Amino acid sequence: MNYLHKALVASRLNSRVKVSTPQSMDVIAKAFPPSTATFNSSWNSTIFQILQFLRNTNSYYMLNAYPYYEYVHSDGIFPIEYALFQPLSAVKQIVDPNTLFHYESMFDALVDATYNSIEALNFSDIPIVVTETGWPWDGGSNEPDATKENAVTFNNNLIRRVSNDTGPPSQPKNPINTFIYEMFNEDKRPGPISERSWGIFSTNGSDVYSISLGSSAGISGNSSTAFCIAKPGADENKLQDGINWACGQGRANCSAIQSGQPCYFPNTLQNHASYAYNDYYQRMRSVGGTCDFDGTATMTTQDPSSKTCKFTGSSNPGGLFPPAAFGPIGATSQSSSIRARVIVYTLAVFFALLIA
After folding, report:
1. Which residues form the X8 domain (predicted)?
2. DSSP-derived 3-state class of residue 114
3. Which listed residue, 58, 107, 334, 355, has the most CB atoms within 10 A of its CB?
């Protein structure tokens, strides 16, 4: 990671590209209760070095968190509703005895356990990104909870959970950027049936099941026109940075927002950023360009054009609402809906680059 970061510094890309490495929950000795969670002592030296690197480079702790596995391995201690983000009855409430925080989902508890483990090594202000989470839709006779119904329930409830822009109980102001595992089934993967049954799509591209990415669209919905615009109330300094990047390195055509041109008025950062962001997105989305810009951008199906200023829209095949994930995003990226929070995670990588 150090070598990668040095190369990025040499290329002056270190402020936009962040280096990290995903960790599973296995590196945490005991996740429950979250308040007493710590890293496995045998990993302390390695984890300490990783955390030091992440803090020094303003990067992210990347967490692979699977409530499915935690539930299965709990031997009935936790109810399945807890793992599926479903309401718990009064007698099944999960409360941390030390902090008295109420945990409405195992997902939140796992993220909080990781934050507390990081703090136990005297690190703070390292945001967590959940790089893998999901639920298998099929399993063998000894995997009764790996069902399509549970997979649909988990992923749809996950989307609703991370769309509300809040973090876990101990970090309520830190929204949880999350990647759903996974896009396609891995039909050649060894092990039990569930290991080959995490995909939203089959290997031939057909739907296994549908999930909703919000009221506007879903993985299997009707196509719609989508625009990338600046988020109302976004920080003006970040908006200016976003315009500079989009119109410069991002290669957006920003001539229309110059003085005397049709999209110059209203002469506001909000308006100019919206035009620049959208032009960049429409040009670059087919090759991986997305809509986030350090948390200042959002997707909408409402046409932002005016009589004098026309925005270029896009038609999304299959109704897949374009995810806002790989850039440019920042360590404190925030969003008011699913558009910047849930991304279908397609590849498991050891060293991951986040365009910041």
Report:
1. 226-311
2. helix
3. 107
